[in-house]
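I am still getting used to backbone structure tokens and would like to learn alongside you. Would you supply a protein for us yourself, any chain you care to pick? Start from the sequence, derive the backbone structure tokens from it, and show both lines together. Go ahead whenever you are ready, and we will take it from there.
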Amino acid sequence: MQEKLHIGLFLSESDFVADLPTLLESQGHRVSKINYFNDTDNIDVVMFYADESHLDSFLLNQNEAVWVALEPQFLEPRFSALLELGIHDVLLLDELSYKAVSQVLLRAFHRREVIQRMSTHDSLTGCYNAEGFTARVEQAIKDMSSTGRPFGVCSVDLADFQKVNEIHGYGFANQVLCMVAQRLALIMGGRFCVGRLGGDEFLLLVESLSDKEELSQALDMVRSSFTHRFELFGKRIDVVAFIGAVLYPETIGSAEELIAQAHEAMKTGKRYKQQVFLYDRTATPWFQMDMSAEIRRALRENEFQLHYQPRVDLITNKVVGMEALIRWDHPRYGSIPPSDFIYVAENSGMILPLGNWILSQAERDILLMERMGLTGLNIAINLSFKQLQDPTFCENLPKRIRAWKSSRSQLEFELTETAVLSNPELVKKTLTEINNLGVKISLDDFGTGYSALVHVQEFPISIVKIDKSFVQRMNLDRSAKTIVESIVSFAHRLKLEVVGEGIEQLEQLEQLREMGCEQGQGYYFAKALPLPAFVDYASKSNRIKIVRSLSE
């Protein structure tokens, strides 16, 4: 904290604190009385009455200064509510003294530092979270213009880490994740900036590189670091990492795009069993596109399509629903994978208009199918955590559902645990409201989240979708089968429906059926299909005669 501060008194009852300016000035601080606050005031600390007339200014400018609420006396519920709101501390006017003011200022600055760190750092490992890491990459892009030194962005995924959770428990697994973060931070003498994207995926920023060869050497050091076991509570744990990376400016793009391409490089490496995979975006034809601008243009030009993956009743083998998945057929570059544009859409704000388009197009398609005689099918639409972080989207979603022209009981929204956790109170309010309108809520990728079981009970979830990684390992891994059995049993006790994802073999289908899993989807039935192909598949599976063609 600075020794001398510029303190603004933002008050409505100045006589009530007549002694405060004198006390502050006696401590060497510069004091100004203000009637409004904006970012040009150059004020270090704002002391204010936390009434309705001042809270708007606080919410608009809370990052511009340290905010101290002035309260006449200590009332616990109000005191806690102010701190929860983000106000940095509270000064009690009935205990004004030189010492009290000094302590409040010190606490307020410390609390502000803690709040700022929490917004950019992972609470478990202490390394950067996705937001904080993205900001670091943005700074690296700016620094590149002055230093001329390339940098690398890397994605590190821990293969089969779920087994550590299953065998040793989540508490033990969390400790291992902390050890992984520490080991990554120590490689190359702390030259890496370490982030955690979530789950068991980490991010690395390697700055001041000479060329691609130096980045390759750094990646090899990361790979080699995982040849040493992690030791915890007398147990030795083997962890295998898959590492994907991009080199800037050889691969150009925004911070979000670089992180997305590093993630895609990691997934490509896993697909081909390569522990280290250096992505070259120049090998893709759309590498020079301004992806955000192209998404905006593509919406105007109606270039996006929805494909539908059938969801099948495992007893009757009839199609009972479908999951809507977006596809982009670019007029110049052809089919662009969703992984190359969804991440950019989420981090540029374009996910909101894109999500609105998906909802509108799904409504048009379901009405068309119903006119053709294909009725009673549920349609599942994915909601991202970025959408649910947006208060305007959450406010407008129930209004949009009230205007839904088909049966609301056939509409379903799929969320991941990340989406549920994005803004729990706002998400819970929104989900409850749309659930009361008759819409179903499903939790996707169930089994992978550390606390998914808790979320099922706290939120209005009516369907759980078992993550495909468990379904596809059932034949090879007894523990995976046990987990699936437990999920099905748990869900049924809570009177929830269960959907098995990623079914690719008859044996997986039969095992899920024996467990009592009601529905399934996966390549065993069909991949995601364009609307005409889906209508053809569903009508044949359900033995329905189509009364109209899509061209009519």
